[in-house]
């Protein structure tokens, strides 16, 4: 299932039932898991590991050297999980030695055309990146996050699980889990109500998250005071506890 006009390095490890389209190039130190489909004109550099049942479309460039002035050719890598859809012209870079050495993408993600994931990013599972979304280096994205088209995320930012960004959002600070944000720079616009309902969150959990949002963003309290109030609510509701833990772990500060 490898097209005769594809170029596959003899040291690449290709799993069973892998399709590789015409003019695609698979380099050394690349591992492709079973049942993965790679369209024409894709390039995968190593060291890169791609899991099972992925679909990698035309003109993607995966595992290239990081766009980082401090990178001096160290043996860093890209790891991609299973069942991801990576559409046309996406670029994923390997990590840097200073950033831990690994750029990592989880499972079941849908990454639309022209998206960029820079060095040392850590992307969870079941996320959606709409067309043109870009992550600078060292960004962390939680499970089920949804990035609207042309969302731009500054380096070292974190996006919490189940958050959602609007089209053309520009993010310079951490986005707490469960929130919707929009604008340049990003501002909060409530909780991701529709997404939470789709994923089976209980009415009680959603109600508590709404209360938490009001404490955090509508009460007029300083952040430290708001967090103290949220800790009382967090004791009875795990999603609120997750929100509090995210805020406490933030180095850049949260959008507010």
UniProtKB/TrEMBL annotation:
Oligomeric form and interacting partners: Homotrimer.
Name recorded for this polypeptide: Acyl-[acyl-carrier-protein]--UDP-N-acetylglucosamine O-acyltransferase
EC supergroup of this enzyme: transferase
GO biological process: lipid A biosynthetic process
Locations listed in the record: Cytoplasm
UDP N-acetylglucosamine O-acyltransferase C-terminal domain span: 174-255
Catalytic activity annotation: a (3R)-hydroxyacyl-[ACP] + UDP-N-acetyl-alpha-D-glucosamine = a UDP-3-O-[(3R)-3-hydroxyacyl]-N-acetyl-alpha-D-glucosamine + holo-[ACP]
Alphabetical UniProt keywords: Acyltransferase, Cytoplasm, Lipid A biosynthesis, Lipid biosynthesis, Lipid metabolism, Repeat, Transferase
Pathway(s) the chain acts in: Glycolipid biosynthesis; lipid IV(A) biosynthesis; lipid IV(A) from (3R)-3-hydroxytetradecanoyl-[acyl-carrier-protein] and UDP-N-acetyl-alpha-D-glucosamine: step 1/6
Function: Involved in the biosynthesis of lipid A, a phosphorylated glycolipid that anchors the lipopolysaccharide to the outer membrane of the cell.
HAMAP family listed in its UniProt record: LpxA
């Amino acid at each position: 299932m490898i097209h005769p006009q594809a170029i596959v390095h003899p040291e690449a490890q290709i799993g069973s039932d892998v399709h590789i389209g015409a003019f695609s190039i698979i380099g050394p130190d690349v591992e492709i898991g079973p049942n993965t489909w790679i369209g024409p004109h894709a390039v995968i550099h190593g060291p890169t590991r791609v899991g099972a049942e992925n679909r990698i479309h035309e003109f993607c460039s995966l595992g290239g050297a990081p766009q980082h002035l401090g990178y001096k050719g160290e043996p860093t890598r890209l790891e991609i999980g299973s069942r991801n859809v990576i559409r046309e012209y996406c670029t994923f870079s390997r990590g840097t030695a200073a950033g831990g050495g690994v750029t990592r993408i989880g499972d079941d993600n849908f990454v639309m055309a022209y998206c960029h994931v820079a060095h040392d990013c850590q992307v969870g599972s079941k996320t959606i990146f709409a067309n043109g979304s870009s992550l600078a280096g060292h960004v962390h994205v939680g499970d089920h996050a949804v990035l609207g088209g042309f969302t731009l995320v500054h380096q070292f930012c974190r996006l919490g699980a189940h958050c959602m960004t609007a089209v053309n959002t520009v993010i310079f600070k951490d986005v707490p889990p469960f929130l919707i944000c929009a604008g340049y720079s990003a501002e909060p616009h409530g909780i991701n109500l529709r997404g939470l309902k789709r994923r089976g969150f209980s009415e009680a959990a959603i109600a508590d998250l709404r209360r938490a949002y009001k404490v955090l963003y509508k009460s007029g309290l300083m952040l430290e005071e708001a967090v103290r109030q949220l800790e009382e609510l967090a004791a009875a509701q795990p999603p609120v506890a997750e929100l509090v833990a995210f805020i406490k772990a933030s180095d850049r500060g949260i959008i507010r």
